[in-house]
Amino acid sequence: MTIYYSLTFLLLAAEMITFCLLVAPLPYALKKRLFTFLSESPIVAKIAYGLKISFIFVTILFADALQRMFRVTAESDLARSGKQGVIQDIRTDTNLAAKKFYAQRNTYLTGFCLFLSLVLTRTFYIILDLIHTQEEYAKLKKTAASNGSQSEEITQLKKQLEEAKKVERDFAILKQQAKQNNDEYNRLATELNDLSGNKSNKRVD
């Protein structure tokens, strides 16, 4: 295996380890710190930028390995069909089988590396969105609890206001009754003075 395919294999192994860490059942506080660090750290951003460049080279390797696999497969089919005067012997078959195996191996290696990079990126952002959603839910729950306590206070104040209005209505009715009784008393006093012939200008206020 050449050095660039060896580096691709190391990159694939690193992606597999990273994927296992992402989907591991970590505590919420630890997971929140980890993903916050990964999403906000400038060092991680630089590493991600370097990985993007490396994936461009992996894409080129994938295209080359795919083209080579098709070419080796075609040569193997031609050799088996006996065309182009190819001598059928064990050495030739072994050589063609080895070329086909290496071509397929390189294709699968680079292809899985690219595919896992997409899976990792999508998984990371899904978990990050989930953490943000859980934070928003916690805030809304806290706000709802605070609004619940405030609504209880508002209910008590409304109840006290209704009682105060009721007392005010009772007081107004009592005041009206007192005024009516006072007017009736003055009227009766005036009639009594008229009947007794002793008019009095004294009125009860």
TrEMBL record:
Using the record's annotation, list all stretches that form the Bap31/Bap29 cytoplasmic coiled-coil domain. Answer: 152-199
Q: What is its main location?
A: endoplasmic reticulum
Residue ranges that the Swiss-Prot or TrEMBL entry lists as coiled coil: 147-198
Q: Does the keyword Coiled coil apply?
A: yes
Q: Does the keyword Membrane apply?
A: yes
Q: How does it sit in the membrane?
A: Multi-pass membrane protein
Locations listed in the record: Endoplasmic reticulum membrane
Keywords in UniProt for this one?
Coiled coil, Endoplasmic reticulum, ER-Golgi transport, Membrane, Protein transport, Transmembrane, Transmembrane helix, Transport
Q: Which InterPro entries match?
A: BAP29/BAP31, BAP29/BAP31_N, Bap31/Bap29_C
Q: Where are the transmembrane segments?
A: 7-27, 47-66, 108-128
Where does the record place the BAP29/BAP31 transmembrane domain? Answer: 1-139
Pfam families membership:
Bap31 (PF05529), Bap31_Bap29_C (PF18035)
Example of a GO cellular component annotation carried by this entry? endoplasmic reticulum membrane
Q: Which GO biological-process labels does this protein carry?
A: endoplasmic reticulum to Golgi vesicle-mediated transport; intracellular protein transport; protein localization to endoplasmic reticulum exit site
Q: Which PANTHER family match?
A: BCR-ASSOCIATED PROTEIN, BAP, ENDOPLASMIC RETICULUM TRANSMEMBRANE PROTEIN
Its family remark reads:
Belongs to the BCAP29/BCAP31 family.
Q: What does this protein do?
A: May play a role in anterograde transport of membrane proteins from the endoplasmic reticulum to the Golgi.
Query: In its UniProt entry, what is this protein called?
Result: Endoplasmic reticulum transmembrane protein
